Amino acid sequence: MLKQEIDTPALLIDIDLMEKNLETMASFFRGEKGTYFRPHYKTPKSPFLAAKQIESGAIGISCQKLGEAETLITAGITDVLITNEIVGDYKIKKLISLRKHAPGLMVCVDNIIPAKALSEEALKRGVKMPVLVDVNVGQNRCGVEPGKPAVDFAKEVSKLKGLELKGFQCYHGTLQVWDQRHGLEAKQQEMERSNGLIVETRESMEAAGLNTAIVSGAGTGTYKGQYHVMSEVQAGSYILMDWKYHITAPEFERALTVLTTVISTPARDRFVVDAGDKTASTDSGMPILKDVEGYEYGTAGDEHGILTPKEPSRELKIGEKLELYPSHCDTTINLYDRYYGIRDGEVEVVWPIAARGKSQ
Amino acid sequence: MLKQEIDTPALLIDIDLMEKNLETMASFFRGEKGTYFRPHYKTPKSPFLAAKQIESGAIGISCQKLGEAETLITAGITDVLITNEIVGDYKIKKLISLRKHAPGLMVCVDNIIPAKALSEEALKRGVKMPVLVDVNVGQNRCGVEPGKPAVDFAKEVSKLKGLELKGFQCYHGTLQVWDQRHGLEAKQQEMERSNGLIVETRESMEAAGLNTAIVSGAGTGTYKGQYHVMSEVQAGSYILMDWKYHITAPEFERALTVLTTVISTPARDRFVVDAGDKTASTDSGMPILKDVEGYEYGTAGDEHGILTPKEPSRELKIGEKLELYPSHCDTTINLYDRYYGIRDGEVEVVWPIAARGKSQ
Fold this sequence. Notes:
The structure is a homodimer. Chain A is α/β, with parallel strands linked by helices.
């Protein structure tokens, strides 16, 4: 099947570019770096792509949700870190059930109440649950404060007999594209501040005799400046990318596009395509037209987009299929059930997005 | 199962409120109005809810996508208007296939090239395809211009032997919440202008001997001020609503919420919940906390939200489940596979969202 024969809207991966991204990141972690790579599944949500990441040298996979972990573990990928807090009786029971089939499963904790519940469930089911203490190193979302509060909390956690303390998590999400908001210099400063908190926390935990074998964090926008203060890096977007992240990390290619059709050409100042808010997320800006120079995409509702000619290199034709670069890969991918993997203009493979909608 | 036992994030419908909305709209169209109701499926995307709308008096269902129409027709709901242009060989073949199983299926056209292709395919398959001419009455998206251009195009369409001209569509999307952007008076003016274009187009088409049996348009934000210039109204959001549409149409209750859990309470100034951009859309603003006064929700990434205490009526507890009103029902619903229908605090029914992700 040719790319142009795919029904629209559809989500495409340029396989050559994706493989280039896999190799770019894998080669960074090869050699004497002393830091491992545990790519994040919240972006691609496909066990087939996760398997490629492990083939290319990753020591395991990161994910955000229990439902995501389930799709990995049932696909045979069992070295999984849930980079998030798992709270509530139902989820804790499910987590321990998964743990029985995935000895490499780990989870984050930042509150003693769910940590105790997790420990009790683990003991009841005859397993130990490996955990990382989640530490706030600048994002101000989840996580205990670094330094002494982290040490105090880790001590409490290490007393819980159903848990096995493996280290801590130190992810700073807003730092990833800090350069786009505040400039490169400000990003460097914030990164140094955050790295300082990470080192301080590791040293304090070690001084207290606490395990810091795993220090997990960083992303596509910070791996180069943070890998040296951690034992593993969690970057996810690098494999497929979007136009926005590409500004910060241009070493990775934009391998992901939305295929769309021109469905209406009612006037010379607008060309309507069948891709709207339900097919390309706009939380990080509008998609950008890939193929033809001089058009600007704007959403025109849930099912429509309008391409406005600015300095158009040519006219667009009714029925023509075009590709859009999404502004945010994660939330766009989560709208689709499958990827069409394209090479040399043909569909080479269709990959199910097994964790699409796995928000629980 | 109690509401509080549902795993999170989850999408809930308050059945009492939904039934009230169904009745509020149904009662509006009862009696001597002379206008029918054809509710839009792009919002609820569930054939079970569409069936309730037909039970309550709707003459059929509107939808945007062929994939949506398919989920209706395979569920036995065959009076379906696709309020959109269907373009491209594959889609046209599929449309005519569906037409053979749904004599009440109609579609919009605004360009002679796909209209001819549609006619040819219909002739080849031995059916007539009922169509509406899509007319631009102010939204400036799809549609031919009103008045003479619409008449000229409708004449061309009526010559195509595989098509059966049934009338025209006159939907003005941006008019729905025009009041929130420009004020009520400006909305009234724009509505009168749009209604004038609709009447002019109908009269011109009638004068030219063209069929105007169906004049279809309006939404939850305009049905009261537009029903009298059309034969049927397409409102969709009214059945479930969101907080934003509720400002414009307060006669309908906010029956839809996202159930979320407090998963981290790291500081007194923030409470982290497990609902982010992948579980509540933000294209029309942030969700609003339903249960507890004095907290403001802000997205904190794809999987997290932060509730910031402003004038909090009480503390939030780790593990506590809360409900959020989405800002935009359509794009939020499209993230979920099922609704939990709640009555008196218990799960009464689970409705699959059959057309979730049916963007093709």
